[in-house]
Write a structure and sequence with these properties.
Helices cover about 55% and strands about 5% of the residues. It starts with 8 loop residues before the first strand and ends in an 8-residue tail after the last helix. Helix 1 (about 25-35) runs parallel beside helix 3 (about 70-95), helix 2 packs parallel to helix 5 and helix 3 packs antiparallel against helix 4. By secondary structure, it is mainly alpha-helical.
């Protein structure tokens, strides 16, 4: 993802009237870090990897517009994407469901494990939703 004016500063008002400044390069660097993180897609086919990467990219782009600490939020999104990728790889590998359930409960205590399908492409959107985002099929 490239921007016409990479040095353009964006003024993001914060709730306490302070202002956080960031550049389009910050967004580009966060997306690049996401795409370079092989831990997200290890063991997944392209369709599954694309679902997770697409979700994380949309989350990062949305976070860029919010009045918060962007780099911390982007890092957290990458971490969630890695977690979903690992669980998806476990499903794809045929890992025992009890191990998958235990890992899910560690990561997201509120996820409805009974609703998690055995088919990986059906499971990924549910996993992503458990971290606060929706995957587009």
């Amino acid at each position: 993802m490239k921007y016409d004016t990479p040095d353009e500063w964006v003024r993001i008002p914060k709730p306490d009237s302070e202002v956080e400044y960031r550049t389009k390069r910050d967004l580009e660097a966060a997306i690049e870090a996401l795409l370079d993180d092989e831990g997200i897609t290890d063991g997944l086919d392209d369709a599954c990897a694309d679902l997770i990467i697409g979700w994380a990219e949309r989350q990062i782009e949305a976070a860029y517009q919010q009045p918060n600490r962007f780099s911390e939020v982007a890092s957290s999104i990458r971490s969630h994407a890695r977690s979903v990728g690992r669980i998806a790889a476990m499903i794809a590998d045929g890992t025992d469901r009890s191990r998958i359930v235990a890992r899910l409960k560690q990561l997201s205590p509120t996820i409805q494990v009974a609703a998690l399908p055995a088919d990986i492409e059906e499971a990924i959107p549910i996993l992503l939703a458990s971290f606060g985002g929706q995957a587009e099929m």
